[in-house]
Amino acid sequence: MEPAWDVLREFRDRAGFHADAPEKFFGARHRFQKEWPTVEAALVEFQALLEFFLKAEEKELANEFEPALDSLLNDLEKQLGGNKFNREQTKAYLMLPNAQSGGVHYEVIKRND
Fold it and tell me: Is 20 left (phi over 0), alpha (psi -120 to 50) or beta?
């Protein structure tokens, strides 16, 4: 991933999340497109790393995370004066694979050329 870091940072800072001067904005977009093979390789590597961690997290936290989330939501409800959280929806947002809502399947979006 490291070879693409400078390209990604420049794009983020000048074109992605913060608009810079027009020359820098379009320069960052041009560099991103010009160096797409390097960026794409970094994204593929990051995707593999993300999938690895999601699977590891699912195995390691399957029996621990959901009860901890329920406890946190109970505490928040008390602190917030009786406001209620939709637990199934919250678990779905957090992508808990074994949540009571029936589970959420991890899906990685692939780029089609």
Answer: beta
Q: H-type helices in 1-113, by residue range?
A: 5-11, 22-34, 36-61, 65-79, 87-93
State the CB neighbour count (10 A cutoff) for residue 97. Answer: 18
| One-letter amino acid of 80 | L
Mean pLDDT, the chain cut into blocks of 10 residues (113 residues total) = 90 82 91 95 92 78 77 88 81 62 41 47
Quote the Cα angle for 58-59-63, to 5°. Answer: 85
Torsion (CA) 90, 91, 94, 97 in degrees, nearest 10: -160
Q: Are 91 and 66 in contact (CB under 8 A)?
A: yes
Give the tokens for residue 111. 């780029």
Instruction: Please state whether the predicted TM-score (pTM) of the whole model is above 0.70.
Output: no
